[in-house]
Amino acid sequence: MKRRWSLVLLCLLLVVPALAFGQAKTTLELLIHQNDPMVNYINSMNEKFQAKYPAITVNVSVVKADELATSTQTRLTANDVDVIDMFGFAQGILPFMKGVDKPNWQTLIEAGYLMDLTGQPFLKFYDASAIKDAGSFNGRVYEVNTGRYAFTGVFYNKDLFAKYAVKVPTTWSQLLAAAATFKKNGIAPMTCGGKDGWPVLVAGYGILLSYYPDQAALVKGLWTGEVKWNSPKSVEMWKRMQILARDLIEPGASAIAFDAAPGRFASGAAAMLPAGSWDAPAIQAANPNLKLGYFPMPASDNAADNKYLGGKYDVGWVVNAHTAKKDAALKWLDFFSQPANYQEYVTATGIMPTQPTATLNTAFGKEAKPYLANFRLGFELLWANIKGQGQWMQPNASFFKPFNQWEDPAKLADQVQADLEVALKAAK
Amino acid sequence: MNRTSWSRNVGLYLALIFIAIIYVGPVIMVVNTSLKAKQEFNLNPSSLASGLHLENYANAWKKASFPLYLKNSLFYAVVATAIYAVTAVFVAFPISRKYVKGHGWLFTLFVVALFLPNAIIPQFQLMLHLRLYNTQVGYILLNLVDAIGVIILINYVSSLPRDLDEAAAMDGCSYFRFVMQVVFPLMKPALASVILLHSIGIWNDYVTPLIYLPAKQLMPITRGLMVFYGQYGNDWTTLSAAVLLLMLPMIALFLSLQRWIIAGVLQGSVRG
Amino acid sequence: MSSTLYAFGSRKSRLVPYLLLLPGLLLYLFVSLGPSVATTIYSFTDASGLLGTAVHWVGLANYEEFLFRGANARDNWEITLRTLQFAFLVTVVQTGFGLLAASLLNQRLRGRNAFRTIFFMPVILGATIIGLMWTLFLYPLGGPVEKLLNLLGTRSDFMGGPPSEAFYWIVWIQIWANMGTTMIIFLGGLQTIPNELHEAARIDGAGAWATFRAITFPLLTPSLNTNLLLNIIGSLQAWQLMLVIKGPTNGLNVLGIWIYALAFGRQSNNPTQAAMRQGYGAAASVLLFLLVLVVGLTAQYLIRRRERRLLG
Fold first, then answer.
1. Is A376 domain-assigned?
2. A12–B135: do the CB atoms touch at under 8 Å?
3. Residue of A nearest to B134 (CA)
4. Are residues A177 and A55 part of one domain?
5. Using omega within 30 degrees of 0 as the cis cutoff, is the peptide bond preceding C23 cis?
6. Pairing between strand A83-87 and A26-33?
7. Which one of B22, B96, B118 makes the best mutation probe of the C interface by having the most chain C beta carbons within 10 Å?
8. Of A88, B24, C36, C255, whose CB is crowded by the most CB atoms within 10 A?
9. Across A43-47, C56-60, C271-275, least confident range
């Protein structure tokens, strides 16, 4: 009787590992973050890829954006993943920065986790400057960046604007007037994915950009002390961020997840949606009849300050340097990079392409085109965290009620500046 | 029954009902939402469901990959608990009976477990070095220990008469056979509680699968449900149906095994 | 102390209990106890957690950074304070609530078993179900509690609102989830109090509250102590529910979830900055352990002292 049980247990212990390890074909492990249009495109592209290469199966893991960094690191170190979606290399350490945290991608490169892709044939399809700015380190290429998104603009519902005779606002007071008109008629001026926190942060970036169009200079200025978070100019900026969080964004927005916001906006519940251009396909998918527009957040009283669009290099592909399936991974990257496939990717996700032959031909793409000449890299891409920097050292509109505790913009400004100065002092 | 007693009883019932509402309210909300159409919920989350949209359950079953996740959860809970139960009895028995030298130290070793630093970081490194990350074996390995269960068993063994041991030995029974054939059946009450507590703990664990089981095929239902929530976080009607699909069997299990579970909780709270 | 009379033979077969004990013991040492102890050693290194990166012995540098370095340290002290607040609120309210429920259930009322089942149910439902259930119940755009608050003239964003507010909602859900255990332990204690004592008090003309104060509560001391200690230690270390409901969030974190965030790279919204810092996280773990030790031992001392005074 006891022997039978021990046999059963022994069998279980032997069968289980076999189940886990038994694979004949090559399985390529892909890790991407949750973004409906991108996930859908990747899935359909994988079907074509698997049809072309029957010996390779692509297994896609999707995680929420805030879990991506964790999954990337844990799976890389366990050698459990092959191709990973990583945002464009940002926050590189500049010469005037002392005592800053190394960006994560640099740590991974230096620890030998990211494959050196320099010289790979598919790189020639891409814009050289994009490869350099978003995917290189010390002259070697580690990431194939797939494009840029703008995140300082505001989506607007052209029909609603026409219905209430509202023109596209080019100054702050025009924006407030437009918001008042919508409120009077029972339409929320703006909605936002407050539940996930970062959409409100992103919504505030447009305000930051209007006050500090040269974000690289902003970073340097903060380091040298020329620019302060609690200067009168900055306090005015914080005041407007508060108005955004408290008055313009609809109450209850903290229930709306980041991927529910496009749907809500598309349904006509709100007239505007301050969000990144990555939401464009989701908005159109939710309501194909919606006439969609996009304008830069007009946070300044001077229209000339409000014609920039800030953004980031977004999804890029990196390869696990220790992968056993190097060949499959490179084939996949090559397949993705083929201009025909890449163009489909661009159309599906609404990303601004990093391949010169691709164009963003969607309705949204045409809408954003005039502003793209003034594309700026956003602050969050340039600011490297100083060791010991506190949680308030961020131009974050979601610090204000109802998303967080702050009610006085001047006090918040002082806190932010204080956090910065403490860190700068410790960094010397 | 005089009047003061009657009004006192009414007061007590009112208090009980009030608390019951607090406990049943969220459950009713889940049930109600699971019967609504998506638009219906978006328009008015608090309204009573107007129809019975049972397709939410079919959707949840399919979209949230219930069969896969439930199978995994069951597998982990059963295998880990079975191995644990056997090893735990063989640890608890000699310690309680003082058949091993250093039994006092061993007992203390298990008691101390509750007070030690969080082990997740070295455990992670251990799993990495053993190459057991993202494997079923690794996950089960992490679930083969439970100090509270061992303590409960140790306490229970001391209630078993020693004469049994002597009688069995005189009959020529070996130690191993004695424990397997005599002790195990006698330990049924404590074992039942320990097994239930341990398997419920594994079933409900979210953190360990979050860290160690990124592969969808290996995920238990707790992680699977949260992954589904991450992808369909605004689809509350389907999500509620999924939550209910998970809750109902657990409630059924609880109702039938209530006695053992509660006994286990009580025994686990007794400090050694 | 030598092992007591072992009846199953001698010499070779004397080793059998040891051999059979070994698997369970080794598993425990290897998977649980060992790693717990190793955390301390880890805390003195700058290990990131990534295999193959250089690891250096840094002594107390992690502790220094956590407790004293820059505005970061201020945030860490806030987290520590918040952990204590969390534990205090949860312990006090959960113990009181559990006592109330147990007292009600101890009365000879029909259907009390049904109530007991209902109140205890959340204990076995687990953090995922409870977290999702309450996220739905506390839906800020017209959910039932929101509507109730509107009737009372106010509103809330619940767990999505300002962290200072979200904190209390999470405290409440934690209490709701675990009250059943506390209640059961109190029920066990209440049932050991002989009825004759209550009868005697009633005959002497004592009201319900006086009886409770003079007889019931003092005799409940063992159960109260168990509950207090379990709740204090448990709530100081709790974080799974917070993880399911909100995830690591500045202004809301308790030490438990912050350790996870540091160790696995979820301490920042910004993916570039969210680096795994396992040496640093281990230091935070040790600090939490010390906190539990200090608070737990102090509580234990005070509780036992009161027990001795009351029950002699």
1. no
2. no
3. A80
4. no
5. no
6. parallel
7. B118
8. C255
9. C271-275
What is the tens place of the pLDDT at every residue in A162-198? 999 999 999 999 999 999 999 999 999 999 998 888 8
Q: Report ipTM (2 d.p.).
A: 0.92
- Give the pLDDT confidence score for residue A169 in this predicted structure: 94
Q: What's the farthest any 2 CA atoms get from each other in chain C?
A: 80
Which of B93, B98, B121 shows the shortest C-beta gap to C39?
B121
Residue A138, classed as helix, strand or coil, is coil
Same domain, yes or no: A128 and A274: no
Regarding whether A393 and A244 lie in a shared domain, the answer is yes
| The predicted structure's pLDDT at residue A12 | 65
Do A228 and A336 share a domain, yes or no? no
State chain B's mean pLDDT as an integer.
91
Domain residue extents for chain C:
2-42, 61-310
Domain harbouring A395, CATH code: 3.40.190.10
* Residues of chain B neighbouring A263 (CB-CB closer than 8 A): 234
Model pLDDT, residue C234: 93
- Does the distance separating the beta carbons of B128 and A77 come in below 8 Å? yes
CB within 8 Å of chain A, chain B residues 183-222: 211, 214-216, 218
Q: Is the model's pLDDT at B272 over the cut of 50? A: no
Total number of domains constituting chain A: 2
Spatial CB neighbours of B52, under 8 Å, sequence gap ≥ 6: B35
Q: What is the pLDDT of residue B264?
A: 85
- C46 and A CB contact within 8 Å: no
| CATH level 3 topology of C61-310 | MetI-like fold (1.10.3720)
Q: For residue C256, what is the nearest residue in chain B, using CA coordinates?
A: B118
Q: How far is B206 from chain C (nearest CA, A)?
A: 7
Report the residue from A70, A89, A105 with minimal CB separation from C266: A70
Cα–Cα distances in Å, from A255 out to C136, C140, C220? 10, 6, 44
- Alpha carbon distance B266, B193 (integer Å): 10
Q: Are residues A282 and A421 in the same domain?
A: yes
Strand ranges (E), chain C: none
Q: Which overall architecture, per CATH, does domain B65-231 show? A: Orthogonal Bundle (1.10)
Residue C273 binned pLDDT confidence (cut-offs 50, 70, 90): confident
